[in-house]
Every structure is written in C-alpha cells, then in structure tokens.
Design brief:
Elements: H1 2-22, H2 24-43, H3 65-76, E1 81-84, H4 91-105, E2 110-115, H5 122-133, H6 142-151, E3 155-161, E4 168-174, H7 179-192, E5 197-202, H8 215-223, E6 229-235, H9 238-246, E7 257-260, H10 266-279, H11 286-295, H12 300-313, H13 320-343, H14 347-359, H15 368-373, H16 379-391, E8 395-398, E9 401-404, H17 407-415
Parallel strand pairs: 1-6, 1-7, 2-5, 5-6
Antiparallel strand pairs: 3-4, 8-9
Length: 418
C-alpha cells in the first residue's frame, strides 16, 4: 500500500508541475525572464577579444576554416567524426564553431555538446545524455510533454524550471540497473524525432574507464542505426582514441572519419591577433608574436592566454619583455598549485618531470646521455615514473617526443629551484 501511495504521490506531483509549466501566466513570465537574461548576457560579453573560455561566435574564433569545412562536410554527408588532439588545443571551440554554422544553415537542426570527463559509469553517462537532449528538440508544448511521458517506459521524465535561467528542463529519474534500456529509449527518441541532430561527446575515451563491460559495443549498436543523428567523438588521449577507432578488434573500428587537430599556423594566428591590437592603435609585430608563439609551440590555449594578458595591459610597445612579464604573472599566480602538484609525486617522478621540462621535448627517454645528464636512476625506474606521469596526464607523448602537458607548468619547472 505504501508503494501504491508513493506512486500516486509521484504522479500527482508531476501533474501539478506540468500544469504549472503550461499555465499562460507562467509562460508570459518565463518569456520576460528569458528576455532579461539575453540582455544581461549580451552586456556581459567580454571586451577582451582573446577568449580563454567559452565561444562567442566566429568573430572571436581564430582560423580553423579548413577544419570547420571538413567537419561540416563529413557530418552533412553522413560520416561521423573522431576528433583527436591534446587538451587545450581548441577542440571544444572548433565543435562550437561547427555547430554555429550548422544552425546558421539549418535553423531546425539540434546541436548538443556533452563533456563526459567527469562521468564514472554508464548510469552517469545516460543521465548526462538525457539532461542534454530531452525536451530540446522542440518547444516544451503540451503535446511534447505528453509524448515524453508516454514514450519512456524504463524511467520517469521530470519537468522543472532551471533555477538560474528559468527555462523549463527535462531530467530523467531512472533505475541504475535499467540504464541500458533508458539509453535505448533516448536514442530511439532522437531517431524518431525526424530532426537532424548533431551530438558531440567530448573526452569520449572516458567510456573505457567505466566498470560496466561492453559499453563501446552497446553505443555502437545504437549509433549505427540513426541516420538523422550525427556524432563527433572528441578525445585528448591519442593512443586510447586511436585504439578505439582503428583497431579491428574494437566495435567502433573504421566507423568514423578521423581528424587530428594540430596547431593553428603562425601566419593565420598572427593575422587574427594583429587585427584586434590594430583596432586599439597598438602594434603587435610579427617578430614579437613569433617569439610568443614559439615559446608555447603554437598550443592554442597558452598562446591565447598570453594574448589576453597583453591586451589587458594597454601598454605600447608590445615587445618580448612584455610577453615575458605576462608569462611570469601567470606563473606567479599558479605557483602554489604547481608546488602542491609536486607533493603528490614520488622523487623519481619529480626528477623525470623536471628533466623533461628542462629539455623541452625528449624523444629517447631511456638514452644514457639523458639519464646521466639529469642524474636519473636506472632505465627501469625511469620507465616506471614515465608510465605514472603519462597516466596522470602530466606529460604527453607527441610525434617529436615527450613534453610536459601543461606548458606553463613546464616553464615553471624549468626555472624553479626544487
């Protein structure tokens, strides 16, 4: 009896919530609230054009014209994408730029971005997917809400108003043991919507860490039968992503077009940066920009961070000394965090990390000259430390050799007395 009462209470509360959301007075207030939020958002757009977070349209997005065109062409012609690059190279910005142009061409297209880095299992993945897509293919009209309630059998859609934006949103109240059923229903919902959907799943390699077995095969079994739903699988662990999509033993073998994102060409980046400084009647010379660019090896977020600081300082001339000053400001701000990071490592790991930072990039990690030069221990101890640093993503294996993943951290390590 208590169970029956509980079910009645849930249904009753849901009906009341639904009636509230469909009330004309609520809709009018909601429209006013959204209008105010849009005006507030427009006012809050940064006056610094060198963004280090978020996406504010193509005017503040540097280059990537070739990559944008490649992604759009592939998606529009039915090819899903695997997008691989180190973190902070600009994957998310590129995805948002592609979505901007897709929706500019097709107003009815629905674009969804999910970052699954923080998810730990299939249940959390399904929950995030549900929150991201449900109720967003159409306005939350009465007929849409009714169809949602009748469509899902393994879970209960929960309609609520977002506390920050005031917008109606849909989440799923489901039983973890029925996650696979709920996932199937979400994909069926997307497939039967008739809407062209584009879903970007960032840090996709995270699904290999889930405790459940067969998650790759489960996703592949649904995705291959969804002609109106197009996917971008984005990831930063190159070796894991390549194994997932190029190994004949894996479910996603040869199922996507693979694009590896590299640095923005120096000339293109300089043209972008120079234009914004010129508007402020400030001169950024090619020589100074080249110095900045080479210091960070063209790694997008780090170049962008320095440009952001240079723009903020309003100082002329912009020279190498000013670039160094901006970098030192950043290192000073982060020093406590860097020191804390080192306390979590063994002495062997710290020694190897500092040795790599000093070299900048090292191809032969077990070479006798390298080991002797930096007073490291045996090759076997170096290999143990190397594996740990790779797993912690403190170093990254590029085609040219191993580097410290966080370039600012690498410079601090090189300069610091430890």
């Amino acid at each position: 009896m208590n169970h029956v009462k509980s079910e009645h209470n849930i249904i009753g509360k849901t009906k009341i919530q639904l009636l509230y959301l469909l009330n004309p007075n609520f809709i009018a207030l909601f429209a006013l609230h959204v209008s105010c939020n849009i005006k507030t958002a427009m006012k809050s757009i940064s006056t610094n054009p060198f963004l280090i977070t978020g996406y504010q349209g193509p005017d503040y997005f540097c280059d990537r014209e070739k990559e944008t065109a490649s992604l759009m062409s592939a998606l529009k012609n039915g090819r899903n994408i695997t997008l691989i690059s180190p973190r902070r190279m600009g994957k998310t910005g590129l995805i948002k730029n592609v979505f901007y142009y897709i929706q500019k061409e097709n107003k009815s297209a629905a674009c969804f971005y999910l970052d699954i880095f923080s998810t730990q299992n299939l249940q959390e993945f399904v929950s995030l997917l549900g929150r991201s897509v449900l109720g967003k293919l159409d306005t939350l009209s009465q007929s849409t809400l009714k169809s949602l309630f009748s469509f899902f059998k393994s879970c209960r859609p929960v309609i609520s108003a977002n506390e920050i934006t005031g917008m109606p949103s849909v989440t799923l109240d489901f039983i973890p043991e029925r996650s696979e059923e709920t996932l199937k229903e979400i994909f069926t919902y997307l497939n039967q919507s008739g809407v062209e959907c584009y879903i970007a799943i960032d840090e996709f390699q995270q699904i290999t860490e889930y405790p459940e077995k067969g998650v790759e095969a489960l996703l592949r079994s649904h995705i291959q039968f969804m002609p109106n739903v197009h996917f971008i699988f984005s990831g930063s662990k190159k070796h894991v992503m390549e194994e997932m999509f190029t190994s004949a033993k894996r479910p996603f073998y040869q199922s996507t077009q693979i694009i590896v994102l590299t640095e923005i060409p120096l000339e293109n980046y300089y043209s972008f940066a120079h234009s914004f400084f010129a508007k402020e009647k400030r001169e950024l010379t090619l020589e100074t920009f080249s110095y900045l660019y080479q210091l960070e090896n063209g790694h997008t977020w780090y170049v962008q961070s320095i440009l952001n600081r240079l723009y903020e300082k309003k100082i002329n001339p912009i020279d190498n000394r000013l670039v160094d000053r901006c970098i030192n400001d950043i290192l000073d701000e982060q020093e406590t965090i860097y020191q804390s990071n080192l306390t979590l490592l063994t002495n062997n790991q710290v020694d190897l990390l500092k040795a790599i930072a000093t070299e900048g990039c090292i191809k032969s990690i077990n070479a006798n000259d390298f080991i002797k030069k930096h007073h490291l221990k045996t090759p076997s101890s170096v290999n143990v430390a190397l594996k740990s640093l790779l797993n912690k993503e403190l170093i990254y294996n590029t085609p040219d050799g191993y580097i410290v993943y966080d370039r600012f951290f690498g410079k601090w390590l090189k300069d610091a007395v430890i």
